Predict the structure of Oxidoreductase.
Amino acid sequence: MAGESIVVLGAGLAGATTVAELRERGFTGTITLIGEEPGLPYERPPLSKGYLQGGEEPAGFTVHDAKWYQEHEVMLRLGVAAISIESARRQVLLADGSAVDYGQLVLATGSRANLGGGNPLAGYDLPGVHTLRKLSDAKALKAEITDGARLSIVGSGWIGMEVAASARQSGARVTVYSSSEVPLAAVFGQRFGRHLLELHQRHGVDVRTAKVQGIEQVDGHLQVLSQGGSSPADVVLLAMGAVPNVQLAETAGLEVDEGVLVDATLRTSDPHILAIGDIAQAMNTRLGQRVRVEHWDNAIRQGKLAAATLLGDSESYDWWPYFFTDQFDLGMEYVGHNDPGDETVIRGDMDSGEFLIFWRNSQVVTAAANVNIWDVNDELRAVLGREVSAERLADPKIELADL
Ligand SMILES: Cc1cc2nc3c(=O)[nH]c(=O)nc-3n(C[C@H](O)[C@H](O)[C@H](O)COP(=O)(O)OP(=O)(O)OC[C@H]3O[C@@H](n4cnc5c(N)ncnc54)[C@H](O)[C@@H]3O)c2cc1C
């Protein structure tokens, strides 16, 4: 193993975590990190929150500084995309014509913005129409979200709602086009979705239930076309979800479904290739099913697990999925894996803004979230997978630890 060459393709959070963990665990062979973005790997959550609002700067959310990569002898090939994986020769071909040999390869190519499936939304490429995945996207969007600017957001998922909150805080006039009456209700249930909707409405976000048919430019001005007619906008964000970057994996002949199929140690159908982070549809031993998770915590934990697998340490994907969000004065952590139809149980007073949500399926707690209540996530994790009555879950007199 010591002399082996490990190549990590995709210099995002998952990839950067893998290289750090390899050195942390004592790997002394060659490590190369390849990424098409020009800068050092960074964390993306601030792009829709602190960075967009102006409080956070890239230096604060860069995973490691340049000196770290030098000191840990990690070769960086940044600003160049990989164009194919020659798995028989164990080689990655890059857009600049060079090739990088690997003993083992970790794919961590992340996601890109959904532009509307096979048929992109009309007008997606007009000036003033943005998506948000990269620092360069966030820079361009931030420059246009000025006091009084009319921002239209297509999509009411996490990124759409976070940007809506950040833009209101910058004084923009914000309209969100939601395909459902209540944002996120299809996944998290009506009660929480309505809470989020009302939070945004209280802060002056105009949330409309309407399917957007396209964006037009009329006399140099943007118009958003929806079932409700045509509305002017100065800037538009397409926030219609993300699509995993699995093309390289597919053409390399790896098994791919909704993501790159990997086992509980993150190995793909090729024994020399692993896949992690947003692209991995991984066997979760706790859930007993394959899941693909597009969240920050998953990128870190799978980044570490990949290093363990590469070094022959016996670990597996056995943790509950977790994510967080921040919107206006709402901060929330979620842990678990609920089905859209699961029953929701609230503990606390939603009107106070501080409460817990539990999801249950056949008496069993499938997921839990803490909203503006902190340092309880470990206790919530302990309840997951257990049968607990709705009455006990909702009763604030029963300590979480006693559930
Ligand atoms: C705006 C935004 C806000 C978010 N907020 C939250 C949040 O609040 N909470 C939360 O839990 N999660 C959040 N997330 C999700 C979280 O950031 C992602 O799940 C995480 O970044 C995934 O890490 P990754 O390394 O798998 O992929 P990425 O971070 O997407 O990195 C993949 C990298 O691979 C590169 N790449 C792709 N193809 C190639 C190629 N062919 N050659 C070379 N390089 C390539 C990409 O350019 C990219 O740099 C947010 C995401 C975004 C975009």
Summary: The chain has three domains: 5-110+245-310, 129-238, 329-402. The pocket of flavin-adenine dinucleotide is lined by residues 9-15, 34-37, 44-45, 47-48, 81-82, 108-111, 132-133, 159, 245, 248, 277-278, 294-297, 299, 323-325 (CB under 6 Å). The chain has a mean pLDDT of 96.
